[in-house]
Amino acid sequence: MNCEFLRNRLNPTFCEFINTFLLFKTWEAFEICSILFKAKRERFSKVIGRYLKGGSVLAKVLSSAVIGIDAFLVEVEVDITSGLPTFTTVGLPEASVKESKERVKSAINNSGYRFPDDRITVNLAPANIKKEGTGFDLPIALGILAATQIIPQQIVSKYLVLGELSLDGRIKPVKGSLPMALAAKSAGYAGIIVPYDNGREASVVEDITVLPLKTLSQLVSFFRGFAQIKPEKTDISTIFKDSRGFEVDFSEVRGQEHVKRSLEVAAAGGHNLIMIGPPGSGKTMLAKRLPTILPPLTFEEAIETTKIFSVVGILAKDQALITKRPFRSPHHTISDAGLIGGGHIPRPGEVSMAHNGVLFLDELSEFKKHVLEVLRQPLEDTKVTISRAALTITYPSSFMLVAAMNPCPCGYFSDPKHECRCTYPQIRRFRSKISGPLMDRIDIHVEVPAVAYKDLRGEADAESSGEIRARVTAARERQSERFKRTKIYSNAQMISRHIKKHCKIDEASCNILESAIDKLGLSARAYNRILKIARTIADLDGESDISVDHISEAVQYRNLDRGKRFV
User: How far apart are CA 448 and CA 280, in angstroms?
Assistant: First the structure.
């Protein structure tokens, strides 16, 4: 070897020392390097000796992966052994994880470091769980740099690391950084290293340091003590304060006072609702304003909702937390997997993305019947369990279902100003797309007639969303106090024993309810729904007992049961 070449090449830096040795991999190179850097000889002799004797160097970096909406820790082990250059990833990696070797190699080289021409084995532990996604790129790169002594292993082991690498060494955002930050906090780690665009999302987790980074070289400089990274911090109270406004308001809706009342009752008790009316009567307009009267999200609800959006990957890069209740309105061509969730590795569907919010199904009768039927279980259980051969995942799905539909194919059945051209068999077939069991799970049925001209021209200001929300919030607070020792939080979630305890009615109310059940042919589930609605109406009125008026109003919200005479 040309010793003069080595002397001219070397600079008094640790990185050059290692890179020069890796270039030649001989004892002669090590001796020359160690003479120039006497302080380095004892520190690196063991590592270099293992290289030259055919041994291996092992480094470990902690990362994380997501199952459902919760994260679990993954230990990324990198073993470098002298031999023919290969790069093998084990531990049940999916295709995107296997492809990381090309991204990692280019990122290391283009960041100014030498990628070792040796046998590299990467193990993702635990090895019995499938790993997917691109978030393991950065941990693998750090493992290689730690194994080659470019960065100190003892400092790397203090942090949980995640991030995708581009070929030029930039760190790209990944899905699920919020649940991963929660996992790092639970495991007691000093901090979490995330892509810069994921910084705000991860920073909502308290008592853990969040370090957002843009490039691999920036991270290496931090671990070697040459640079500092400013931790990302987020003021939760400011986020909630800045998100109180809405672009729409109930004061913009003219007429339809009885429909507004039914939406208020639905919001107060968390009840499912369906609106039936001709085209242009305002069904969609009213539904879009429902979130404006719902109670604000609590911090715990916001975290749970944000975790779902984070896992799906639809959280904006400048958004730290979901602070408004979700409003999801899928198109009627959606599949059952898109609505409930599914895939090779199950992903959340629309019912989970509407968790703690509203799922609006416009043109309900246009949805495929088998798609609607899969709603029955999540409406009852407030969760969705998706089973595959490899795993079973449960997603939360506590949402308010709001549906809208026309009364018949032409849309003008029972409209006094338009002639309906549909035959009764056509109307029966049209309505039969919504099964009885599904309809029984919808508490409130309300007709939405066309708006009269005088209501459209009315100058009087309608009640605002803020005024309605104040009453709804007060009713929800009464329910929270009522159910504080249980796992439910609204009247709609009551089961039989809760109904028996909290929905007691007097003799006069019993007579009205008995008459309604006999005439309308209501099911046992519909009977319970009426009692729940009556309890909510009483809460809105600030009453502790259910009165005859409350029962009478509740019965009026079963329009489709009374509408059986139409078909």
Answer: 10
Give CA–CA dist 72/377, Å, rounded.
Answer: 28
36 contacts 7 by C-beta, under 8 angstroms: yes
Identity at 177, one-letter amino acid code: S
Instruction: Check: CB of residue 54 under 8 Å from CB of residue 63.
Output: no
| Phi, psi angle pair for 296, to nearest 5° | -60, 150
* Rounded average pLDDT per 10-residue block, the chain, 567 residues: 43 53 51 53 48 67 92 94 90 92 95 91 92 93 93 91 95 94 90 93 92 95 92 86 79 88 95 92 93 92 93 86 93 93 87 95 92 91 85 91 93 84 89 85 90 70 88 94 87 90 90 83 78 94 91 86 49
What are the residue ranges spanned by the domains of the chain?
3-51, 54-223, 250-456+465-566
pTM: 0.84
d(CA 172, CA 157): 22
Question: Which of these CATH numbers, 3.50.50.60, 3.40.50.300, 2.40.128.20, 2.60.120.380, describes 250-456+465-566?
Answer: 3.40.50.300
Residue type, 532: K
Report the C-alpha gap between 90 and 120 in whole angstroms: 11
54-223 domain in CATH 3.40.50.720?
no
- How does 55-79 read in b/e, with b if 16+ C-beta sit within 10 Å? ebbbbbbbbbbbbbbebebbbbbbb
| Contact between residue 15 and residue 113 where contact means Cβ atoms under 8 Å apart | yes
Alpha-carbon distance of 158 to 62, in angstroms, equals 8
